[in-house]
Protein backbone atom coordinates (compact mmCIF):
# COMPACT_ATOMS: atom_id res chain seq x y z
CA UNK A 1 0.00 0.00 0.00
CA UNK A 2 1.14 3.52 -0.77
CA UNK A 3 -0.22 6.28 1.45
CA UNK A 4 0.29 9.83 0.32
CA UNK A 5 -0.39 12.32 3.06
CA UNK A 6 -0.78 16.09 2.77
CA UNK A 7 1.81 16.35 0.03
CA UNK A 8 2.92 19.89 -0.84
CA UNK A 9 5.33 20.94 -3.52
CA UNK A 10 6.55 24.34 -4.64
CA UNK A 11 9.24 25.34 -7.11
CA UNK A 12 11.40 28.42 -6.68
CA UNK A 13 11.03 31.01 -9.41
CA UNK A 14 13.68 33.42 -10.70
CA UNK A 15 12.17 36.22 -8.64
CA UNK A 16 12.72 33.85 -5.67
CA UNK A 17 9.01 33.63 -5.07
CA UNK A 18 7.60 30.19 -4.51
CA UNK A 19 5.43 28.72 -7.23
CA UNK A 20 2.95 26.29 -5.76
CA UNK A 21 2.36 23.13 -7.75
CA UNK A 22 0.05 21.40 -5.30
CA UNK A 23 -0.89 21.42 -1.62
CA UNK A 24 -2.27 18.89 0.71
CA UNK A 25 -2.66 16.03 -1.70
CA UNK A 26 -3.68 12.85 0.09
CA UNK A 27 -4.30 9.53 -1.59
CA UNK A 28 -4.18 5.85 -0.74
CA UNK A 29 -3.24 3.34 -3.42
CA UNK A 30 -3.99 -0.22 -2.41
CA UNK A 31 -1.98 -3.24 -3.46
CA UNK A 32 -3.08 -4.43 -6.86
CA UNK A 33 -5.07 -1.27 -7.56
CA UNK A 34 -4.77 0.69 -10.78
CA UNK A 35 -5.08 4.39 -10.07
CA UNK A 36 -5.32 6.75 -13.06
CA UNK A 37 -4.61 10.47 -12.87
CA UNK A 38 -5.72 12.94 -15.50
CA UNK A 39 -5.30 16.71 -15.55
CA UNK A 40 -4.30 19.59 -17.80
CA UNK A 41 -0.75 20.10 -18.93
CA UNK A 42 1.28 21.87 -16.24
CA UNK A 43 -1.05 20.80 -13.43
CA UNK A 44 1.76 18.95 -11.64
CA UNK A 45 1.17 15.35 -12.68
CA UNK A 46 4.83 14.58 -13.40
CA UNK A 47 5.91 16.37 -10.24
CA UNK A 48 3.44 14.29 -8.25
CA UNK A 49 4.64 10.98 -9.74
CA UNK A 50 8.25 11.94 -9.05
CA UNK A 51 7.39 12.65 -5.42
CA UNK A 52 5.65 9.28 -5.04
CA UNK A 53 8.55 7.46 -6.69
CA UNK A 54 11.13 9.00 -4.35
CA UNK A 55 12.76 11.01 -7.15
CA UNK A 56 11.74 14.44 -5.91
CA UNK A 57 11.50 15.66 -2.34
CA UNK A 58 8.15 17.25 -1.48
CA UNK A 59 8.17 20.43 0.67
CA UNK A 60 5.84 18.88 3.20
CA UNK A 61 3.83 15.75 3.67
CA UNK A 62 4.68 12.11 3.50
CA UNK A 63 4.76 9.16 1.16
CA UNK A 64 4.44 5.90 3.08
CA UNK A 65 5.32 2.69 1.30
CA UNK A 66 4.15 -0.31 3.32
CA UNK A 67 3.88 2.03 6.34
CA UNK A 68 7.43 3.35 6.00
CA UNK A 69 7.97 7.00 5.17
CA UNK A 70 10.23 7.09 2.13
CA UNK A 71 11.48 10.63 2.80
CA UNK A 72 12.58 9.58 6.29
CA UNK A 73 14.58 6.71 4.84
CA UNK A 74 18.33 7.00 4.51
CA UNK A 75 19.30 7.85 0.97
CA UNK A 76 20.54 4.35 0.21
CA UNK A 77 17.29 2.84 1.43
CA UNK A 78 15.26 5.30 -0.63
CA UNK A 79 17.36 4.49 -3.68
CA UNK A 80 16.59 0.84 -3.15
CA UNK A 81 12.88 1.61 -2.84
CA UNK A 82 13.08 3.48 -6.12
CA UNK A 83 15.15 0.84 -7.88
CA UNK A 84 13.55 -2.35 -6.58
CA UNK A 85 9.98 -1.67 -5.50
CA UNK A 86 9.01 0.85 -8.17
CA UNK A 87 9.16 0.53 -11.92
CA UNK A 88 9.01 3.98 -13.51
CA UNK A 89 8.01 4.54 -17.12
CA UNK A 90 9.03 8.06 -18.09
CA UNK A 91 7.08 10.32 -20.41
CA UNK A 92 9.94 10.48 -22.95
CA UNK A 93 11.18 6.86 -22.50
CA UNK A 94 14.65 7.92 -21.27
CA UNK A 95 16.43 5.11 -23.11
CA UNK A 96 20.19 5.56 -23.28
CA UNK A 97 21.07 6.23 -26.94
CA UNK A 98 24.43 4.45 -27.02
CA UNK A 99 23.25 1.19 -25.49
CA UNK A 100 21.42 -1.63 -27.23
CA UNK A 101 17.82 -2.49 -26.43
CA UNK A 102 18.96 -5.43 -24.31
CA UNK A 103 21.54 -3.38 -22.41
CA UNK A 104 19.02 -0.61 -21.76
CA UNK A 105 16.77 -3.17 -20.11
CA UNK A 106 19.44 -4.71 -17.86
CA UNK A 107 21.13 -1.43 -16.85
CA UNK A 108 19.04 -0.74 -13.71
CA UNK A 109 20.36 -3.97 -12.18
CA UNK A 110 23.77 -4.07 -13.85
CA UNK A 111 25.76 -4.35 -10.62
CA UNK A 112 23.24 -6.44 -8.69
CA UNK A 113 23.15 -9.80 -10.39
CA UNK A 114 25.15 -12.02 -12.74
CA UNK A 115 24.89 -10.81 -16.33
CA UNK A 116 23.71 -14.16 -17.67
CA UNK A 117 20.62 -14.09 -15.48
CA UNK A 118 19.97 -10.45 -16.24
CA UNK A 119 20.15 -11.02 -19.98
CA UNK A 120 17.92 -14.05 -19.75
CA UNK A 121 15.30 -12.12 -17.77
CA UNK A 122 15.57 -9.13 -20.12
CA UNK A 123 14.97 -11.36 -23.13
CA UNK A 124 11.87 -12.82 -21.50
CA UNK A 125 10.50 -9.41 -20.59
CA UNK A 126 11.14 -8.01 -24.06
CA UNK A 127 9.35 -10.99 -25.58
CA UNK A 128 6.46 -10.48 -23.16
CA UNK A 129 6.01 -6.87 -24.29
CA UNK A 130 6.13 -7.94 -27.94
CA UNK A 131 9.67 -6.91 -28.92
CA UNK A 132 11.06 -9.43 -31.38
CA UNK A 133 14.55 -10.84 -31.06
CA UNK A 134 15.90 -9.06 -34.12
CA UNK A 135 15.51 -5.76 -32.25
CA UNK A 136 17.47 -6.83 -29.14
CA UNK A 137 20.82 -5.55 -30.36
CA UNK A 138 19.56 -2.37 -31.99
CA UNK A 139 20.17 1.10 -30.61
CA UNK A 140 17.03 2.98 -29.51
CA UNK A 141 17.27 5.34 -32.51
CA UNK A 142 16.34 2.37 -34.72
CA UNK A 143 13.03 1.80 -32.94
CA UNK A 144 9.57 3.23 -33.51
CA UNK A 145 7.86 5.18 -30.71
CA UNK A 146 5.73 2.19 -29.79
CA UNK A 147 8.76 -0.09 -29.64
CA UNK A 148 10.68 2.39 -27.48
CA UNK A 149 7.79 2.58 -25.07
CA UNK A 150 7.58 -1.20 -24.79
CA UNK A 151 11.35 -1.43 -24.19
CA UNK A 152 10.95 1.21 -21.46
CA UNK A 153 8.19 -0.89 -19.89
CA UNK A 154 10.40 -4.01 -19.99
CA UNK A 155 13.18 -2.03 -18.28
CA UNK A 156 10.74 -0.82 -15.60
CA UNK A 157 9.78 -4.45 -14.91
CA UNK A 158 13.35 -5.72 -14.66
CA UNK A 159 13.56 -5.60 -10.85
CA UNK A 160 10.20 -7.35 -10.60
CA UNK A 161 8.67 -4.30 -8.87
CA UNK A 162 5.41 -4.32 -6.95
CA UNK A 163 4.42 -0.93 -8.28
CA UNK A 164 4.51 0.48 -11.79
CA UNK A 165 4.40 4.27 -12.14
CA UNK A 166 3.80 5.53 -15.67
CA UNK A 167 3.90 9.08 -16.94
CA UNK A 168 1.69 9.43 -20.03
CA UNK A 169 2.78 6.03 -21.36
CA UNK A 170 0.60 6.23 -24.46
CA UNK A 171 0.94 9.97 -25.08
CA UNK A 172 3.05 9.71 -28.21
CA UNK A 173 1.67 6.48 -29.66
CA UNK A 174 -0.72 5.76 -32.50
CA UNK A 175 -3.89 3.83 -31.72
CA UNK A 176 -2.48 0.39 -32.60
CA UNK A 177 0.55 0.86 -30.33
CA UNK A 178 -1.53 2.47 -27.63
CA UNK A 179 -3.73 -0.63 -27.60
CA UNK A 180 -0.71 -2.91 -27.36
CA UNK A 181 0.63 -0.95 -24.38
CA UNK A 182 -2.80 -0.92 -22.77
CA UNK A 183 -3.00 -4.72 -23.16
CA UNK A 184 0.37 -5.05 -21.38
CA UNK A 185 -0.87 -2.95 -18.45
CA UNK A 186 -4.05 -5.00 -18.17
CA UNK A 187 -1.97 -8.19 -18.05
CA UNK A 188 0.31 -6.70 -15.40
CA UNK A 189 -2.67 -5.70 -13.31
CA UNK A 190 -3.96 -9.26 -13.55
CA UNK A 191 -0.63 -10.44 -12.23
CA UNK A 192 -1.18 -8.24 -9.17
CA UNK A 193 0.94 -5.19 -9.95
CA UNK A 194 -0.12 -1.89 -8.44
CA UNK A 195 -0.33 0.77 -11.16
CA UNK A 196 -0.22 4.53 -10.83
CA UNK A 197 -0.66 6.05 -14.25
CA UNK A 198 -0.92 9.57 -15.60
CA UNK A 199 -2.66 9.94 -18.93
CA UNK A 200 -4.43 12.37 -21.24
CA UNK A 201 -6.31 9.49 -22.80
CA UNK A 202 -9.65 8.93 -21.09
CA UNK A 203 -9.97 5.47 -22.64
CA UNK A 204 -6.71 4.51 -20.92
CA UNK A 205 -7.74 6.15 -17.63
CA UNK A 206 -11.02 4.25 -17.63
CA UNK A 207 -9.24 0.89 -17.53
CA UNK A 208 -8.16 1.71 -13.99
CA UNK A 209 -10.06 1.04 -10.77
CA UNK A 210 -10.24 4.70 -9.86
CA UNK A 211 -9.54 7.97 -11.63
CA UNK A 212 -8.52 11.30 -10.12
CA UNK A 213 -8.17 14.70 -11.73
CA UNK A 214 -5.30 16.93 -10.70
CA UNK A 215 -6.28 20.53 -11.19
CA UNK A 216 -5.34 23.78 -9.52
CA UNK A 217 -3.19 21.97 -6.96
CA UNK A 218 -5.97 19.65 -5.83
CA UNK A 219 -6.74 16.01 -6.49
CA UNK A 220 -10.38 15.20 -7.05
CA UNK A 221 -11.85 11.74 -7.56
CA UNK A 222 -13.79 11.53 -10.81
CA UNK A 223 -14.30 7.77 -10.85
CA UNK A 224 -14.07 5.39 -13.79
CA UNK A 225 -17.55 5.91 -15.18
CA UNK A 226 -18.09 9.62 -14.76
CA UNK A 227 -15.56 10.58 -17.43
P1 LIG B 1 2.39 18.14 -15.85
O1 LIG B 1 3.17 16.87 -15.80
O2 LIG B 1 1.01 18.02 -15.27
O3 LIG B 1 2.37 18.75 -17.19
P2 LIG B 1 4.60 19.21 -14.28
O4 LIG B 1 4.64 18.46 -12.99
O5 LIG B 1 5.61 18.84 -15.29
O6 LIG B 1 3.12 19.18 -14.88
O7 LIG B 1 4.77 20.76 -13.96
C1 LIG B 1 3.92 21.46 -13.08
C2 LIG B 1 4.31 22.91 -13.04
O8 LIG B 1 5.58 23.05 -12.40
C3 LIG B 1 4.47 23.54 -14.42
O9 LIG B 1 4.00 24.87 -14.35
C4 LIG B 1 5.96 23.50 -14.67
O10 LIG B 1 6.36 24.56 -15.49
C5 LIG B 1 6.52 23.66 -13.27
N1 LIG B 1 7.80 22.96 -13.11
C6 LIG B 1 8.02 21.65 -13.38
N2 LIG B 1 9.30 21.31 -13.09
C7 LIG B 1 9.89 22.42 -12.63
C8 LIG B 1 11.22 22.74 -12.16
N3 LIG B 1 12.18 21.81 -12.09
N4 LIG B 1 11.46 24.02 -11.75
C9 LIG B 1 10.49 24.96 -11.80
N5 LIG B 1 9.22 24.73 -12.22
C10 LIG B 1 8.92 23.49 -12.64
MG1 LIG C 1 4.05 15.73 -17.28
Q: Mean pLDDT, rounded to whole units?
A: 93
Structural class: alpha/beta
Total of helices: 7
Q: Report the sheet with the most strands, covering strand number, pairing sense and barrel closure.
A: 6 strands, mixed
The CATH homologous superfamily: P-loop containing nucleotide triphosphate hydrolases
What is the CATH third-level topology name?
A: Rossmann fold
What are the bound molecules? Answer: adenosine-5'-diphosphate, magnesium ion
Shape: globular
- Compute the number of structural domains: 1
CATH class: Alpha Beta
Which spans have pLDDT < 50 for at least 5 consecutive residues? none
Number of strands: 10
Our measurement of the CA-to-CA distance between the termini, rounded to an integer number of angstroms, reads 26 Å
Biggest sheet strand order reads 6-7-8-3-9-10
Order of helices and strands: EEEHEEHEHHHEHEHEE
The fraction of residues in strands falls at: 25-35%
How large is the radius of gyration? Answer: 18 Å
- Oligomer state equals single chain
The CATH architecture category equals 3-Layer(aba) Sandwich
Helix content: 25-40%
Amino acid sequence: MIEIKYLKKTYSTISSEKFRVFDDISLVIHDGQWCSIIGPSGSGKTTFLNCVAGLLHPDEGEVLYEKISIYNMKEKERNNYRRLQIGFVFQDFKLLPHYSVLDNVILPLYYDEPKRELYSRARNLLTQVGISEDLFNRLPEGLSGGEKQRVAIARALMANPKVLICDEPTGSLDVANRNKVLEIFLQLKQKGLTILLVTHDEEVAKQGDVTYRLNDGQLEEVGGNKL
